[in-house]
Design goal:
The protein contains three helices and no strands. It is mostly helical. The model has no long low-confidence stretch (mean pLDDT about 90).
Length: about 70
């Protein structure tokens, strides 16, 4: 869980930037967006396979196997 210890005299905007970086690094915002709407398991699986297919095609293009 991200958290920032604030010392007296520290600027608030600096602490906010540090906190935002920690939240972003922990991936909390992404998880929150995923959980905002229910996604059926079949749709989740379909999206996962499409993403894998895209990664595979990108890798093949990078290696020069597909034009």
């Amino acid at each position: 869980m991200p958290g920032v210890i604030i010392k007296p005299g520290d600027p608030l905007d600096k602490m906010m930037r540090i906190f935002k970086k920690q939240v972003e690094k922990a991936g909390i915002i992404g998880d929150l967006k995923k959980k905002m709407h229910y996604e059926k398991p079949s749709i989740r699986l379909k999206k996962k396979s499409i993403a894998a297919r895209k990664r595979r095609m990108k890798q093949m293009r990078k290696l020069g196997q597909i034009d």
